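Mods, move this if it's the wrong board.
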Amino acid sequence: MSQGANKGRAIALLPIGVFLVIFLGSGIIMNDFYAMPAIVAFLIALAVAFIQNRSLSFDDKIKVIAKGVGEENIITMSLIFLCAGAFSGAVTAAGGVDSTVNFGLSIMPSSIAVVGLFVVGCFISVSMGTSMGTIAALAPIAAGISEKTGFAMAVCIGAVVCGAMFGDNLSMISDTTIAAVKTQGCEMKDKFKANFFIVLPAALITIIIFLVITSGSSFEIEESLTYNVLQILPYIVVLVGALIGINVFIVLIGGTVLSLIVGIATGTIAVSDMFTVVGDGVTGMYDITVVSIVVACIVSLVKEYGGIQFILDLIRSKIKGRKGAEMGIAGLALMVDCCTANNTVAIVMAGPIAKEISDEFGVDPKRSASLLDIFASVGQGIIPYGAQLLSAATLTGLTPFAIMPYLYYPILMAISAVCVILLRKEGK
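Not the wrong board. Structure tokens:
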């Protein structure tokens, strides 16, 4: 018997509270927010959820989580994660990452080096679907530009992180996009279009700011930047295919096959290794896939016990109309990301609640998906204990706090999204 259908219960949120205490507590105590694997904290939270509510038998609780995990969007999202991993593994092995980075840098005018870092970062992150990969690829280049132009290292690496977060939020193969789209029940191309026009002003203003603060200097890349257009082709095919509405599975599988063909043709992938590189890519997505499944289990029990209803009742009492609902979704995504330090996990956790809010207040699914992804990325792009800033700091010898003053894009992205929410007419 469902206990959450009629009455919300705050105590039902205990498993989520336990996760946050364990995850954040271990991060603070150990001074490392990645010392505690998220999956371990989630499994402890799941155990707490099973202990709660003795009116339901263990077998009944198993049925509840089985139904939750078997929900269409959860299964589809997990399969898409694995397909995205296969594509990432194949295209990386084929030389797509190096060619994409070198191509972007080769067309960058030397007079706008730091702006170029941001723009190239946007291009690479949209193509690769990973902010971490973008930072790893461009951080050494940023260090070189800083050394030869005299610009502070923090400015240069700040531009890289800003560009990385642009694609993390927008890329068709980003795990955040996949999670946002599947939890809200909309099409990727629709979410991309809605998302793009919200963040475009932020990107343009970021370019202007970097132009102003770095005007008057230039940088020449002395080493040879070799690239092969064929190796960039799979990224373009996947991006275009997703934008025109081809089924995401077809797009990703087709991109994987094309990457293998390109890799074999250019000699970067041996025929005997083609299944290995795909397998390595799929393996790289195991963590987020398992986390998504465990989170679905927790959310199913929390919902059954009345936790989701409690949050909805609380939000319903605080907000009025569609604008208030959209602000509620934005605040929810930002808060959960600041607590989990992982924007994909934040979307997976907040997604079911955001879906309930959007259904209740008539928020378009593509809008709720955009807001989820945007504000989770806003949080991830500015928190000093997030993987992005920690990685950028480690690669350049800086501290996250030295980079934070130059993270213009995530802040402007939040401002742009809030303006869109507040300025749009209620009936539209």
